[in-house]
Amino acid sequence: MRLARLLCLAVIALSMGSSACASGIVQDGEFNFVKAQHLEQWSEQDKQIDTKLAEIREKQGGKRPNILYILIDDVGFGEFGIPELNYVRGTQTPRINKLSDEGLSFMRMYTEPSCTPTRTAMMTGRHPVRTGLEEVKVALIGEGLPKNEVTIAEVLSKAGYATVHIGKWHMGDIKESYPHNQGFDFAAFPLNQQVQLSLMTEDAERSNAMTGYVKSSYTDKFALDKKFKPFGLVTGVEAYKGKDAHEVDMEAGEQWNQEKYNDMNLRYQRQTLEQLRSLAKQEKPFFLQYWPLIPLNFVRSDREQFNMQNGGTMVESMNQLDGWVGEILDELDKLGIADNTLVVLMGDNGPFLRGYQKITGMSDMIYRGGKADHLEGGVRVNAFARWPAAIKPDTLAGDMIHVSDLYTTFARLGGATKYIPTDRIIDGIDQTALLLEGEGNGRRDYVYIYEGVVLRSIVKQKFKMHMPAPGVPGAAAPVFDIARDPREMTPLIEAALWSGASFQDMLKRHMMGVKKYPHSKGGSDKPYEGIDNLRPETLDAVETFMSWH
Amino acid sequence: MRLARLLCLAVIALSMGSSACASGIVQDGEFNFVKAQHLEQWSEQDKQIDTKLAEIREKQGGKRPNILYILIDDVGFGEFGIPELNYVRGTQTPRINKLSDEGLSFMRMYTEPSCTPTRTAMMTGRHPVRTGLEEVKVALIGEGLPKNEVTIAEVLSKAGYATVHIGKWHMGDIKESYPHNQGFDFAAFPLNQQVQLSLMTEDAERSNAMTGYVKSSYTDKFALDKKFKPFGLVTGVEAYKGKDAHEVDMEAGEQWNQEKYNDMNLRYQRQTLEQLRSLAKQEKPFFLQYWPLIPLNFVRSDREQFNMQNGGTMVESMNQLDGWVGEILDELDKLGIADNTLVVLMGDNGPFLRGYQKITGMSDMIYRGGKADHLEGGVRVNAFARWPAAIKPDTLAGDMIHVSDLYTTFARLGGATKYIPTDRIIDGIDQTALLLEGEGNGRRDYVYIYEGVVLRSIVKQKFKMHMPAPGVPGAAAPVFDIARDPREMTPLIEAALWSGASFQDMLKRHMMGVKKYPHSKGGSDKPYEGIDNLRPETLDAVETFMSWH
User: Fold this and answer.
1) C-alpha dist (Å) from residue A221 to A101, A148, A218, B65
2) Does the keyword Signal apply (chains A, B) (predicted)?
């Protein structure tokens, strides 16, 4: 790491710009190794970018860009933004297709393989393994995003941004993890996720989408444990920064059902529009993130939405969400803020497959694998960035980018790089050059792919090594050419023996950083604290949980 | 079939137009069954189409459209025409992408699963099983397209079209099968195919793409049969209608190699351009088909072409061919005939996989399977139709279409429907309405998929039944929802039990036609007759072949 430090100091000497490197941010050994090969060029480019950003800001009356970040749950690569693939899947996403035409499409956006990890990477700019936060389970867990992580909301907030979170959060059920305690001025979100909200219902049981959860679904006289099934979970809450949260639209003793899930989705859409209107009036720029719950949906409803060839619950819900995205983009136009608002829309990981395809209509169409897999199908998503004042429309970029890069890039655009912590590794790379200058200006040609705490793959350029299982020699690790073999079916083995040593070096550079900056401990606490109206059944569930912790 | 006849007569009574039905063409029972549900509507639409075609013709100075048909070998769905998928595969096909923007993209074009069958279906408008022609092998075979088949070249020729064939033919090595004996005024083509031309060479042996063919590659003192390996095959020939063919660019005793293959490809490209220039000068409209040999290519050359991320021999050759397509389209512009020339460009079947992926860079990216498979990956291709005078640009159509439909459709556009034979089943459906009126005006919602002589799948709308193996009860046949499951991985079984009887009915309607109009016998003769300069080694090969026939 000493080399990297020296290099970074060299860059600081060369430039007083606000780029990530110049600010003393600690990055992965692999990035430092690549950066050393482009030092002068990137430093020069960073100066030009600072000038360009200043010019854009001047044209916008001195206002920094608003950022609207829409993260869509469990939708695989190709499900929106490419009209021809709408035909393959028998669906329609006209509004997102149009958004893609109006901005830059990242053709190689990598996420983490699952919800909590991707959201954590975006929020903290770090691989989730470093934060100690693993995938958050469906019911009470007493864990979450620790307060010592510095989220992008905190970073932008310090720099004077108004910050709002609407929709899925999924980073823990403890007080310190709540979005309004992690940098957001206001947040409306469910405490848990869609397994509770769309599967743990009578409706899902009737649809044969879920079995055994509903109390009346079967009788088992041998069941001694009456606490085996989780009941009484908190549903949606709302809160202002630092205040207690309040559960909404749920009475004591009331049963959650699909209708209430549909209502919740409609409410988040409505609240996003309301927030936009309110934020547009403020002097401050804003960071609004909308993380919808649909298209995750396992129950067919009678709504007119089911009107496409595919007919799957999630694919049809994706069409519904596409219309909602359209409403939001129209609202930006109406409010007159479209020109200076960076809209980033993307998927959070691969499709939710796992046996539900017949109901949901999901498929791993191009890249093999889905949610929870380190295969490309698990971590490749469509991603679009539109910012009329700065980004060229109708462009594609083949450069690699990782969801954590948004952290560092949003900070740069918001003039907030100085609030990024420098006492830990930040995996996110400043990709402002890619945004403003387009294809060929990316600063990443690698990604480490974890499943939970296990490093499962290393990608470098078009090559990908699947890490050998414990005890298996490295020489037996299969390497894939992702361009020739996007489904990772035919390992190169003998044809890629040259790459073995190179991948081992990458592993070492990464692990040197882990050694120097050990992983943090995730947050841990009594669940559901800081909610001012817990129902009796919720209090009962918490009591049960605490009885054995 | 009686019902269908009656229906057809009814249509004739309603309309004196030139549509396929009105002309007394015999079609598959399934088509008649569907047609009966749309009789009045299609009849009315056909009258409007006749008017529209007449108007277009009048605007074009009375000239019927030229037809340029480009058929690309062994390239899977998604390899060209969709810029985002260029990124997935690390390649570039900018000219074909542009062509796609200038015309109509058929999003559901079905072919037969392999070269000979697709080409036969296009040429005859019939499933190849009906013609008696199976896949033509690589070396001497003494079989081919029989003379009693009536090709689209014969049909258009009778109606006054100039007809030219350049490139791969692959419908037999007997005299009656040659393109200049099947309706083309002029033809330049290789007698066999690319296994001979790009794999049976010293170069391929050195590249480890082929093993054991070259005489010097190994010594086997136990080899008694000195005729086991095919040598002396005819390479490329040229001929005028009814005349003898002449082998070009090959001397007696000369060894075929990769350089000669590259030269042959360049020659066909040059000849296509030359033919275009010459045809444009004629009073007659023309039907020119160009069936390139590349991208099939197994040997890396030093040419600058290898300049993309993928780096596979076929993917890079596809880029080269893309540039050639661009040259041809530019030539149409230069000649001032672009407006009234229907350009149809498509693949002939799925990608050539079969173990060569590492060399060729090919992949079944979206639909599972490749060449020779009845899976969607074997029979789904990209297809584009551009005809500025008549087809709306930048449109997509989700309607089903089969390669044999081009036969009937081209005949209609050329005013040649009356020359389509009426004494046999024609599978090709007149899709002029789809071409001119766009999406939603297709007249096919089914396709029967044969592998050779075996019916392997039936597709109806978005459902596909894989035929049960002999002896397996029909109820065990898996049915797939191609929209939800484009890779045919998860059979619906219990979820699609309603469809079993419907598919059985489709099978019956199809087989009733086969019973009434039994399959023809394929052509059979002494190979290589009608070539005026056979080399001594060729004569030797023919003599060997005839010695045991």
Assistant:
1) 60, 47, 10, 79
2) yes
Question: CA neighbours within 13 Å on the CB side: how many for B138?
Answer: 12
Give the separation between CA A17 and CA A7, rounded to whole angstroms: 15
Q: Does B83 touch chain A (CB under 8 A)?
A: yes
Q: Pick from B87, B315, B363: which is nearest to A396 by CB? A: B87
Supply A359's token pair: 């109901």
CA B452 to chain centre: 15
In contact, B471 and B478? CB cutoff 8 Å: no
Nearest chain B Cα distance for residue A86, angstroms: 10
Contact B325, B318 (CB under 8 A): no
Q: Which residue of B has its CA nearest to A492?
A: B358
Q: What ipTM did this prediction achieve?
A: 0.88
B452 interfacial to chain A (CB closer than 8 Å): no
Taking Cα atoms as reference points, which of A257, A247, A292 lies closest to residue A271? A292
Cβ–Cβ below 8 Å for B363 and A485: yes
User: Minimal Cα–Cα distance from B96 to chain A, Å?
Assistant: 15
Q: What is the DSSP letter of B342?
A: E
Q: Which of residues 468-487 of A touch B (CB under 8 A)?
A: 481, 483-487
Which helix (H) or strand (E) is B460 found in, with range?
strand B454-460
Burial B392-430 (b: 16+ CB within 10 A, else e): eeeeebbbbbbbbbbbbbbbbbbbbbebbbeebbbbbbb
How far is the CA of B258 from the CAs of B201, B301, B389, in angstroms?
A: 7, 8, 41
Q: Find chain A residues with C-beta within 8 A of B396's C-beta.
A: 83-84, 87
The SS3 of residue A351 is coil
- Which mean pLDDT values do the consecutive 10-residue runs of chain A (549 residues) have? 47 44 86 97 97 97 97 96 97 97 98 97 98 88 97 98 98 97 98 93 89 81 87 97 97 96 97 98 97 94 76 93 98 98 98 86 94 97 98 98 98 98 98 98 98 96 93 85 94 82 94 97 96 97 94
Question: Is B492 part of the contact surface with chain A (CB cutoff 8 Å)?
Answer: yes
Report how far residue B27's alpha carbon sits from residue B428's, in angstroms, rounded to the nearest whole number.
8
Neighbours of A252 (CB within 10 A): 10
Average pLDDT, chain B: 93
- Measured at the alpha carbon of residue A255, what is the angle toward residues A249 and A261, in degrees to the nearest 5? 55
The pLDDT assigned to A302 comes to 65
B88 touches A at CB < 8 Å: yes
CA distance A2 to A104: 36
State residue B16's pLDDT score: 39
Q: Considering only alpha carbons, which residue of chain A is nearest residue B396?
A: A84
* Residue B548: how many other CB atoms lie within 10 Å: 6
Q: What is d(CA A412, CA A150) in angstroms, rounded to the nearest whole number? A: 15
Neighbours of B353 (CB within 10 A): 22
Gap from A421 CA to chain B (nearest CA, Å): 35
Contact B484 A361 (CB under 8 A): yes
The dihedral formed by the CA atoms of B136, B140, B143 and B145, expressed in degrees to the nearest 10: 60
